[in-house]
Amino acid sequence: MTSAKARRMQHRALRPGVEYEFEKLLISREHSRTAVTRMLVERAEHGGWELDRVQIKHDGTRRVLLRRRIIRQRTVFV
C-alpha cells in the first residue's frame, strides 16, 4: 500500500465490535453522473465498498466517502 493511499484510508469503529475501513475519493466535475455511478457500482461489486456519503461542492466536484466492514478472525485456543 502506498503512503498516499494509506493517508486516504482510515479505520474506525462505529459500534462496539464492528470496524469499518474508509476511503475518500475526490471526483472531478468532468465525469458524468453515469460514469461516476458505474465506477462506484464497480467498486461495490468487486471491492466490497458501500457508499457512506456524497458531497457535491460549489465547483461541481464530488467528495465521496466509501466504507467496508473489517472482518477480524478470532483466535480460538484449544
From TrEMBL:
InterPro entries reported in the protein's UniProt record: DUF5703 (IPR043758)
Q: What is this protein's name?
A: DUF4177 domain-containing protein
